[in-house]
Amino acid sequence: MKDPKDTRVVIGMSGGVDSSVAALLLKEQGYDVVGIFMKNWDDTDENGVCTATEDYDDVVRVCNQLDIPYYAVNFEKQYWDKVFTYFLDEYKAGRTPNPDVMCNKEIKFKAFLDHAMSLGADYLATGHYAQVRQNGDKYEMLRGKDNSKDQTYFLNQLSQDVLSKVMFPLGHLDKSRVREIAKENDLATATKKDSTGICFIGERNFKEFLSEYLPAQPGNMETLEGEVKGKHDGLMYYTLGQRQGLGIGGPGEPWFVVGKNVKDNILYVDQGYHNDYLYSDGLEASDLNWTSGEAPTEPFTCTAKFRYRQEDSAVTVTPLEDGRVKVDFHEPERAITPGQAVVFYDGELCLGGGTINGIVKNNEYLTYVG
Amino acid sequence: MKSIYFDHAATTPMRQEVIDAMIPVFQDVFGNPSSVHSYGRKARKLLDDARKTVAQSIQANEKDITFTSGGTEADNLALIGAARANQHLGKHIITTKIEHHAVLHAAEQLEKEGFEVTYLSVNESGSVSVEDLKAALREDTILVSVMYVNNETGTIQPVAEIGALLEEHQALLHTDAVQAYGTIPIDVHALNVDMLTVSSHKVSGPKGVGALYAKEKISLDAMQHGGEQERKRRPGTENTAAVHGFAKAVELMQEDQKERLTSYRQFKQLFVRTLKESGIEFSQNGGRINVPSIINISFPGTNVEQLLTNFDLSGVAASSGSACTAGSVEPSHVLSAMYGEGDERTVNSVRFSFGLANTGENVQEGAQKVAQIVERLTKTT
User: Fold this and answer.
1) Where is this region: Interaction with target base in tRNA (chain A) (predicted)?
2) pLDDT digit string (tens) for B205-230?
């Protein structure tokens, strides 16, 4: 391995506290650090001001504090083509996409990685909470030490080739420690609020945002038995297991979304958080990535996450033809959602993941989940 | 690593003589030029001398020179000031798509105020056509603003011909001569212009000062409101030291103009020759009628952010188009006007501009670095 001072590390900086501290740590380790701000979304307002300006200004302030060069790069077109188009297509199909997984796969660890390499970088670093470990000639991705902040769920599509070129300087730290380091070093972003939600939507109302791109088609809310319970605003605004915004009153337990019928534009609802329709015992996933670079050939047992920040569940994974897998849950799971990622773990090791396509119950695919 | 500066069209290093001339002003001439005592008179003299120097450099009368905070303010005063003051004669304005934003955004402001603006396009060489302008001219046209030298391509615009065309027309003619100043001789009478903008920091003077030439008889609505300075066209206590430094820079600029232009021409040739010898693919943007200090080059198969970042990391400072407020480089509006939006050259072109920070040696070294980077990028992608 080269001396740190001869090792160029390009770090993706968002203007947030995490990437700021990641840059600081790399600089302290003596690397040749180059900060780059990615602009993925054109949000120029009527005065011609990009709303990314504030974040970029924070990147500038932090880089000046650290005395590292900073630049910006524009991936608006790639982001639109690879992430946003997928995002809209999934909603159109009645599914609930995960744009962050796609952004990591197509933009941060593909277009941006290529850009970094074209700048003569040896590594690309980001402020993600995850860890990379070299094991012989293989690279392993481990959960961030701060399990409550672990982001491997979103990084499940990273390949061996990518893992060999990335650094996650925060992987061994607790979030609270990251804030402390920022404060100790008086970084400009030390007290900046963490961003929430989907990056291109930001603080805006999700429903309003989506309606700018997809025509809303209101329709009926019905029980699976065919009883009409009200009207919905458009299937894309609802996700499985959701309680809010249904507006169904009456006696008994609260109402939940239990399914979608895209063909007939019906939103299926039923009563009770633990409603049986919400439970399943398996799923089928496609677009699998195995971080080891080797797809399994035999069934195996591991743990899995079906959404971010959920406790792991025990599962048995059975490889199918054409690279898909069937995942059997050891205990029934609630509100497994097509379009979301399923990510597999062996202890701290993230094995990879894929996109949830079908939901299985009693050895049959559920037909009412969209 | 020694850096090489190829961005003189953005700003220039100050000459030592200019700095030396300014320091005593800060130290000894702190008086307010409007004051009626010896301190004021001392400052007033510096101001008047500077006004004479700047006026003479463009063959103008000193009464017609208004000092401003720079090129942007001078352009704004020319466009907005003249349009507002002359709107009783009509509300139509003509400018071009390749102007600096100081003109374009001033024109957009005027559109908001009810003026109608025609933006002339340019040909593939980046030149405005006098015929197009003639066709766009109307009875109610009150103002035409066409830059003298484009800041991205260095293309010289036919301002004198436009001046001749407008001689019998009511429309005032303004030209933004910021990039022309110091690189081509300027004579406001020969050009037949009513208003002309120059800036100090593009000619190795200090930042924060520029001037608008505007004939005394032209009515201009001031942008600022205050005292009686600059014949009320630009109220506010004058920036004496900067104005003095500006004048010093103008003197020096004229003294060595010939030698400088000869060496810039050689730098440009050397730069192009070095790129050619390296075997990389490139083409020049802009026609043959241009200033020697600016060259704009398209590198097929690359993109400008990748190029500029790589150049900077290897110590070569160049630029392109304009950055958005979030730092990323937007496709050049000038190249878009020349080639049409979406043309590859609008996103793979870089401007290199030569000046006092250059020597034959560093131009060649810089060109070699550029060639190596382009070669590496086009090989791997």
Assistant:
1) 98-100
2) 999 999 999 999 999 999 999 999 99
